[in-house]
Design goal:
246 residues; mainly alpha; two-stranded antiparallel sheet; 9 helices
Length: 246
Amino acid sequence: QSLPQQKLLTWLSVLECVEVFAEMGTARVWGEMGRWTIIVLIQLAKAILRLLLLLWYKAGIQTSPPIVPLNREQQQPLHPQDMEGSSSGKDQTYVGKRSSRVVRSLQSTPSLQSRHWGSPQQREESQSRRAEEMNQPPTPLGLQETIAESLYITRPLLHLLSLGVWGQRSWKPWLLSAVLDISSLSLLSDLKDLNRRERAELRRRTILLLYYLLRSPFYDRYSEGRILLLLRLLADYVPGVGFVTR
């Protein structure tokens, strides 16, 4: 990735990390009007950054969070003493004569921070496989897929606009947002040869459709009563669960 693209991803990640805090803080200081103002500004900034990444830098299907958190245990590189002996695997391991079990020899025991339970060959293979997955370029998007990703990016803005037009109690913003999400996923479903990161992102978006059951006005009219009834049944009839459900 180029340096400007990395900066866009960094700013986008910062916005996603602080948006809830900014909304709550603004509501506490400036009230409901200030809260909605900061929501609109943050969602507008996020949409602009994501559209730049999509249309200008051809970033493909974008994940949330934009920068995948680093798993330091999995990404820990081999230490110098491991690298020296990696070329001679026979010196690093010992194969049992009767059990054929492969164990690390005592002479090549690494430092405490880099020890693991697998053989050196397994660790090298897993590290190379993770490096390949992280360095895979984004899948090129055609016109249909670009439109689908643009719908997903602009959906929060359209949802906020519909809330301002029809109000928070109307079904129209809820339906509009659901239609845009489903349309985006259906258009992206035809895309083949996705890498692992992109497939995980599409699965995450599909699972997030369940949140529509917990969003007003659907939650207020249908989900709330059923969820509270289920919690009461669990509290009354399932031992040990009542404290949590109440």
